[in-house]
């Protein structure tokens, strides 16, 4: 039986990518939802804010705000910095709502990184080695093992990377898509710069900062 994804021609994905500026993966998902209709796929991307967000992604974000969230009777706390292009947008209710939502999400899910590119080489290689050994133990051929590893790594990123996680208040939307919706509405690029999560009694705490920011600071 042919799946929907197999029916979507790569040329259609590229055409929607050129039209919207959104990532290829998001274009494929939009075309799957629209059953291969370019215009409907573009509408799907616009509803999620992806069409405008990708085009603004290269714009610098030197303003922003720092927010906090305290949960469980003072047992869990989050400190979060989100950046945008202007102080005006940083002070809007929409931007502040986004900060509260993401801070609350971090308190609930405890992500270790902001995006897949931030995962350390050590963590990346360790996880791949574990998944590769598990898949190889099933006796499957090497090409199949690598496909299994790729699938498990996608799930790994969703578990540990903030932007890839399903938003706790709306599981059908990722944090990346939640931010894209605000970008589309506010008209400015928005980026998560860093966060820290503390839990009373825990032996350590989670602190994460994007590699892009670290490079810029050097």
Question: How would you sum up this structure, described in words?
Answer:
This protein is an alpha+beta fold. The protein folds into three domains: 4-48, Orthogonal Bundle (Helicase, Ruva Protein, domain 3), CATH 1.10.8.10; 63-116 and 161-217, Tetrahydropterin Synthase, Chain A (2-Layer Sandwich), CATH 3.30.479; 120-158, GTP Cyclohydrolase I, Chain A, domain 1. It is built from eleven helices and six strands.
SSE arrangement:
Elements: H1 4-7, H2 10-20, H3 24-33, H4 38-48, H5 50-56, E1 63-71, E2 76-84, H6 87-90, H7 93-109, H8 121-136, H9 142-160, E3 166-167, E4 170-174, H10 175-186, E5 191-199, E6 206-209, H11 211-217
Antiparallel strand pairs: 1-2, 2-5, 3-4, 5-6
Helix pairs in contact: 2-3, 2-4, 3-4, 5-10, 7-10, 8-9
Short description:
The chain is an alpha+beta fold.
How much of the residues is beta strand, in percent? 15-25%
Write the H/E string, N to C.
HHHHHEEHHHHEEHEEH
Q: Which CATH C-level class of the largest domain is it?
A: Alpha Beta
At the fourth CATH level, what is the homologous superfamily of the largest domain?
Elongation factor Ts, dimerisation domain
Helix content: 40-55%
Radius of gyration over alpha carbons? 19 Å
Characterize the biggest β-sheet.
4 strands, antiparallel
CATH topology of the largest domain: Tetrahydropterin Synthase, Chain A
| Poorly predicted regions | 1-6, 213-218
Query: Which strand order does the major sheet show?
Result: 1-2-5-6
How many domains would you count in the coordinates?
A: 3
Shape field:
flat
- Average pLDDT taken over every residue: 85
By DSSP, the count of extended strands is: 6
How many H/I helices? 11
